[in-house]
Amino acid sequence: MTLIRHLMTGLAGAALLATGAIAEDLTIVHGSVGRDQEVLRSQLDKFEAQTGHTVTIVSMPESTTDQFGQYRLWLSAQSTDIDVYRLDVIWAPQLAEHFVDLTEATADIRDQFIPSTLEGQTVDGKLVALPMFIGAPALYYRQDLLEKYGQEVPATWAELTETAALILEGERAEGNSDLQGFVFQGAAYEGLTCNAMEWVASYGGGNFVEPDGSIGINNPQAAEALTLAASWIGTIAPEGVLNYKEEDARGVFQSGNAIFMRNWNYAYALVQGDDSPVKGMVGVTQLPSGGEGMSSAATLGGWELGVSKYSEHQEASIELIKFLTNYENQKERAIVTSRPPTLTAVYNDADVAAEQPFIPLWKPVLDGTLARPSAAAKRKYNEASSLFWTAVHNTLSGNGAAEENLSRLEAELTRLRGPRW
């Protein structure tokens, strides 16, 4: 802690003591990519200066699967060590019992949020968490390379495959041996579930668990989508993509070594940053569809802030999450990290539009995102998702054809579901 921060916190603490309030020491657990943690720490410093409370960040690994596993350990043990958790958008149905109901405490601000962001965090009438930012993936592409080879932005996955192969052939003939055609999140974790849901849905293959809890993933459309994706490995995508998470893909693309990338909104601020080798060369559009008459699909992402039921500082923690989701902080997060806000008004902010034109233009995509089936699968969602990403990863790795792996997946999901989810 810097001397200035000590002084500011001390002054705020003195003011609190003068009014009879008590300064508290809070802990927030937070996984991040890009500049998330940097912006969070800056905003926490402001919170500390205003309130006299102190807030410590407990950092988590990039993988959301690893984060969830650790969270369950803390919560099952009813640990008082963590006051505020940053939660993935899909976790509310699985973890609701461990978090404070925020309904009454947020009555004065709930109408400011995009309604769907609150609906996704409401379980049996209980508001489990406040939405921090929304996530929706995009197709990032090298506009300069498309123009060089006279190619249009691909509207279908087949067009992306063909365009990437054409440009790769030309560039490698000129000695650009490091260039890849397409990078995405291909490791065996929740990120692959998100990618594969988009491929399958864009071909009309449905979801691995339907909204009514039924299982119909073993179908020709899903098999066609996964068969095409498997054809990318070792051709337009490096074999190493089978181990890529978000930052791995971004690192390759931002270094100038990929034509196309599937990634979340946060990557936009970084690939267009002043220190980016590809600044000014990148375009962004919606993900491709499976073909004529089919629609693009983008998995809903985003992160929320919940207060642990086992926290000994619940009032101060609620104060903190309301602070981190207020207009000023959502605006700053949008500008600095290109994270789409959950407050409706921020989309109309002129500064946000000027600094990150990507955000207001992306709101129609956010409104039509594809939800992961956490509400349908309930407490068994993570097991169901693991079965899905394993089947997909096997297909991408050449361990069985798509049809074979989907047939096995259907049987495994049926056993997992039992009489009901």
Describe the structure in brief.
The protein has 421 residues and is α/β, with parallel strands linked by helices. Helix content is 46%, strand content 13%.
What characterizes the major β-sheet?
Answer: 5 strands, mixed
What is the overall shape?
globular
Q: Could you spell the SSE succession in H and E letters?
A: HEHEHEHHEEEEHHEHHHEHEEHHHHHHH
Number of continuous helical runs: 18
Strand order in the largest sheet: 2-1-3-11-6
The first-level CATH class of the largest domain is given as: Alpha Beta
CATH architecture of the largest domain: 3-Layer(aba) Sandwich
Q: How many structural domains does the protein architecture include?
A: 2
Distance between the termini: 48 Å
What is the CATH superfamily label of the largest domain? Periplasmic binding protein-like II
Structural class by secondary-structure content:
alpha/beta
- Report Rg: 22 Å
Mean pLDDT: 92
- Into which percent range does the helicity of residues fall? 40-55%
- CATH fold field value of the largest domain: D-Maltodextrin-Binding Protein, domain 2
Beta-strand segment tally: 11
* Beta-strand percent range: 5-15%
Which segments are poorly predicted (pLDDT under 50) over 5 or more consecutive residues? 1-20
